[in-house]
Amino acid sequence: MQIKDELPESIKEQLQHYQTNTTTYTALIRKGGYMPPNKEIVTDAITALLLGKNILLKGPTGAGKTKFAETLSNLFQQPMFSINSSVDIDAESLLGFKTLNYEGEKQVIEFIPGPVINAMEHGTFLYIDEINMAKPETLPIINGVLDYRRSITNPFTNEIVTASTGFNVIAAINEGYVGTVPLNEALKNRFIVIEIPYIQGEQLKQLIFRNTQLTDETVVDLFVKLSNDLIQAVAQGKIAEDGASIRALLDACDLSKHIPARRAIQRAIADKLDEDREREFIMSLAETLFS
Which of 76, 75, 63, 81 is nearest to 32 (CA)? Predict the structure, then answer.
């Protein structure tokens, strides 16, 4: 992979280090991490993080966005504080909360930092999963954390918290799902967007060998073909996006080691879908491939 000449020398050196020592497919697989469909995804994510940019991982459910975030955390040897977004998330969920404690016999009010404050103070990664599940009025609280200021006035203590060196934000988004809302432009503009597609072909085959109990190459090839057919079906609008989840496919692979493959596909993939026609479509594929 060629390193762009316009990058600062220090960034080029660090990127060269990651490319030559840790971001090869073999190294990622050995770490049990994310297997990228192409090396550019890893290179671009690392470059953005080295430049102090926030990255937004955008892609279908089960494509490996969280696993990719964990892999980046491992590559940078950075712990990662996480936020699982929902409609119930509020300032306390993000920043922390006050509680009563004792110093000797004296009762005192103590502030317990949340994931945002913890990541900022420790200079580590912050991962915000399904960021578009949070209510639109909640996330602007951390706008200052996500831009050049890298700071926030803690509303619970009135202290200004500035991020330590090493602090970075990785977020993930699933678009179009029930309960999600579009990110407003002010928030979206604070991220570098990286598309995370489903992996296919030989890379998926190696992922199955590495992360499931399957060892029979013939059976693994059938699951790779099933995955390709499911991804095409999603693109054609025949089934919901959940039906092509790589996470669900790996579950089916594990189950198939102990129960018939068609039943494994039913339990791990088909029965998760709401529509009878979608379930029937998937089971028809399973019957054809695993007859």
Answer: 75
pLDDT tens figures, 98-155? 888 877 778 888 889 999 999 999 999 999 998 988 887 888 889 999 999 999 999 9
The token duo for 281 is 């479509």
Check residue 61 and give left, alpha or beta (phi > 0: left; psi -120 to 50: alpha). Answer: beta
Instruction: Using alpha carbons, select from 193, 210, 171, 199 the residue that is nearest to residue 32.
Output: 210
Query: 11: helix, coil or strand?
Result: helix
- 175 and 273 in a single domain? The answer is no
pLDDT (tens digit per residue) in 89-99: 888 999 999 88
Kindly state whether residues 42 and 81 are assigned to the same domain.
Answer: yes
Contact 201, 220 (CB under 8 A): no
Please, are residues 273 and 240 in contact by the beta-carbon 8 Å criterion?
yes
pTM of the complete model: 0.81
Two tokens, residue 191: 């991220």
Both tokens of residue 158? 């009135």
Residue count of the chain, please give it: 291
Same domain flag for 25 and 106 = yes
The domain in which residue 243 lies consists of 201-289
Token pair in block for residue 35: 């297997």
Residue 81 inside a domain? The answer is yes
Question: Using N-to-C axis directions, what is the helix angle for 39-50 and 9-21, rounded to 10°?
Answer: 140
Residues 155 and 26 in one domain: yes
d(CA 54, CA 117): 16
Q: Are residues 271 and 182 in the same domain?
A: no
CA 102 to chain centroid: 39
User: Which pair of tokens denotes residue 234?
Assistant: 């999603």
